[in-house]
Design brief:
The chain has 285 residues and is mainly α. It has one domain. Helices cover 54% and strands 1% of the residues. A two-stranded parallel ribbon has the order 1-2. It is globular and about 60 Å long.
Length: 285
């Protein structure tokens, strides 16, 4: 080390202080006088920022794609709802930041510190465990959503928080993430928390997130994207689609589930399937 340079766990940025070729940098070293802790903080911040952008773009693409499908399949269904849709997009992009922060922190920890039980080697667990892990995540997420959703319908919390989501009358494809920030926090922590508890392949985790996104959007579209045999048949008796969630937006105190109907059935809150407001309905003026 040059005379005058102190052993502070930093790399000096003065001219001529570039390490020689082949020299190994200390793991505590950081460029331009920034301490190692500062570099880690910056890296975590950038990871959270990147994940926020990913969640936001995912929302815009998914909701925008299904909104376009709505315009093509049911012209005029969202007529007169421009102001509501702008509000839904604003709240949803704020929620994207809230979802992105814990996801970005956990992603950095997985990549650089080995946090979480996410694995990349498909042979680390038996192949049959891949779909089992997906189902376990969906069941756990659904249970969390059901009970936090019911909690949000307590009068005080509803007036202060959940009213933001129910201000969408009727909901549109843009309403899937339209939450008050405090409610968004309850949704943002569940998947990052589960990855510390339940092993899952990184590809299977991607499938869980895709299912979460698609069902979140399609359940608010105001029409059924799935064939009639899905939501009217035996499968629809246990899976939640737009008709089931529409009844929740009609009556409020029922149909609280996210993916499956078993919690609503067990707790006596399943009120069946709802209907859809036609384009010329009273809320479209």
């Amino acid at each position: 080390m040059r005379k005058g340079a102190q052993k502070t766990g930093r790399i000096c940025c003065e001219a001529g202080s570039i390490p020689r070729a082949g020299a190994r940098a200390s793991p505590d070293a950081a460029p331009c006088g920034i301490g190692y802790g500062g570099v880690v903080t910056l890296a975590i911040f950038l990871s959270a920022l990147a994940m926020t952008a990913i969640v936001g773009v995912r929302y815009l693409l998914a909701s925008g794609g299904f909104a376009l499908a709505t315009r093509l399949r049911h012209p005029g269904l969202y007529r007169g709802l421009d102001r509501q849709i702008r509000r839904e997009i604003g709240w949803s992009l704020a929620s994207a930041a809230i979802y992105g922060v814990p996801a970005g922190i956990v992603a950095w920890g997985w990549a650089h510190r080995g946090w979480t039980r996410i694995y990349a080697d498909v042979h680390a667990f038996p192949l049959w465990y891949l779909p089992v892990a997906v189902l376990l995540y969906l069941l756990a997420h659904d249970a969390w959503f059901y009970w936090t959703h019911r909690w949000m319908h307590r009068p005080a919390l509803f007036r202060r928080m959940h009213i933001v989501h129910h201000a969408s009358r009727p909901p549109t494809a843009w309403a899937a993430m339209s939450f008050h920030p405090f409610e968004a926090i309850t949704g943002a922590v569940v998947i990052p928390g589960l990855v510390f508890l339940i092993p899952i392949h990184v590809g299977a985790l991607g499938l869980v997130l895709a299912i979460m996104t698609v069902m979140g959007v399609t359940n608010h579209m105001g029409w059924e994207v799935w064939p009639r045999w899905v939501w009217r048949g035996p499968l629809g008796a246990w899976l939640i689609t737009a008709s089931h969630h529409q009844r929740h937006h009609e009556r409020y105190h029922c149909n609280f589930g996210l993916y499956f109907r078993h919690w609503d059935r067990l707790c006596g809150t399943d009120a069946g399937l709802g209907g859809f407001v036609p384009p010329e309905g009273p809320n479209r003026s």
